[in-house]
Amino acid sequence: MAKEGPNWDGLLKWSLSHSDATNPPRNLSEEDRKWFMEAMQAQTVDVVKRMKEITLVMQTPEQVLESQGVTSQDIQDMLDELQEHVESIDMANDLHSIGGLVPLLGYLKNAHANIRAKAAEVVSTIVQNNPRSQQLVMEANGLEPLLSNFTSDPDVTARTKALGAISSLIRHNKPGIAAFRLANGYAALRDALSSESPRFQRKALNLIHYLLHENRSDCNVVTELGFPRVLMHLASSEDGEVREGALRGLLELAKDRTGEDAAGSSSIEENEKLKQILLERIEGISSMSPEDLGAAKEERQLVDSLWNTCYNEPSSLREKGLVVLPGEDASPPPDVASKHFEPPLRAWAANRYEDNTPPSNNEKKQAPLLIGLGPPPPRNSSSGGGVAGEENNRDTST
């Protein structure tokens, strides 16, 4: 029985037989050339064409898709494929020109939570490190449904994905930050910190740190909204990353109190509570095993930095030699929040775009068929086809 898909063994043997460095180059016969080109073209996907096909599906009314047997999982798989395509900045910007951005944003209001979540994840990929797409999404009023899902979606995953998309949309985007502030975004972040989902809390803390680090004047806003009390509560969280995020936020607020005693500028009650929390963290760190101490490097440095900033003296961790362990450098706590906004693949694509390097060839291992719109073409040994539902789901959120 003939095997489905390209004959990779045959292609490899053919390539090796024509690339022997010890012999002069061989002239290809027309038959060999034709076979090689067919084998390569079978693996090539016209990305723009596929994006247009996906756009057509997104523009199709939901009831029509359902009548053709298209399920919410099929739509999610299709959005998975779209996300892979728009990891290229060029393709991300092309999505608007082919009419796909607006229907994608429409999926943020879909009745199915998994589609709302996946649509937000695709939006996040589109706007990451991409000022042009950030502008296009803002002009298409994409921030509004993202904020709605972030604040009130009944599904915590959809809320988390919406927050991730907002983070990517407003990062290094002054109009986006201004719109977020006007929409009472800080109050929504405060409410998110009260969630029972550590993952949701971590994303909120990362965005808070970024906003405070980039806009020092907002420290007064978050203080008036009661963030210090919430952050102090989270500084005792059982989740290590949540603790670090809370300590990082408290450190940003403490640093903002220039020209005055950081601890003295708070209420006596808050000052005593913060000191007690820091003492508890120092005690907890002091009792850690060597392995746990290594994993808590940033927390150790944050606790010491926050104590020193608030009380103008080193913490007892420094006296115990626990701020910097042997073999560790004495650098300040690193800015780990930025890694949640710029995945390596997206940063790589951005660098290529900035260098004006031509985009890579549009290749994909499988060319999923357009779901629900007509019968699939016949398969043969040189076909690279497949169905959209066969692709693996990906969750690139951190």
Describe this structure in words.
With 398 residues, this protein is an all-alpha fold. Helices cover 60% and strands 2% of the residues. The protein has a domain at 43-183: Leucine-rich Repeat Variant, CATH 1.25.10. The protein has helices spanning 8-17, 30-41, 47-59, 62-67, 72-85, 89-97, 101-106, 113-127, 131-139, 143-152, 156-170, 174-182, 185-192, 198-214, 218-224, 227-234, 240-256, 268-286, 290-295, 297-311, 316-319, 344-354, and strands at 367-369, 385-387. A two-stranded parallel sheet has the order 1-2. The protein is globular, with a radius of gyration of 26 Å. The chain starts with 7 loop residues before the first helix and ends in an 11-residue tail after the last strand. Residues 352-376 and 379-398 have low confidence and may be disordered. This is TOG domain-containing protein. GO terms for molecular function: adenyl-nucleotide exchange factor activity.
Which shape, going by the Cα principal axes?
globular
| N-to-C CA distance | 44 Å
Radius of gyration: 26 Å
Helix fraction, binned, reads: 55-70%
Strand order of the largest sheet: 1-2
Range of strand content: under 5%
CATH topology descriptor of the domain at 43-183: Leucine-rich Repeat Variant
CATH architecture of the domain at 43-183: Alpha Horseshoe
- Strand count, sense and closure of the main sheet? 2 strands, parallel
In total, the number of strands is 2
What structural class is derived from the secondary structure elements?
Answer: mainly alpha
CATH top level of the domain at 43-183 is: Mainly Alpha
| Distinct helical segment count | 22
Element order, helices and strands? HHHHHHHHHHHHHHHHHHHHHHEE
CATH superfamily of the domain at 43-183: Leucine-rich Repeat Variant
Overall pLDDT level: 81
> What low-confidence regions span 5 or more consecutive residues with pLDDT below 50?
352-376, 379-398
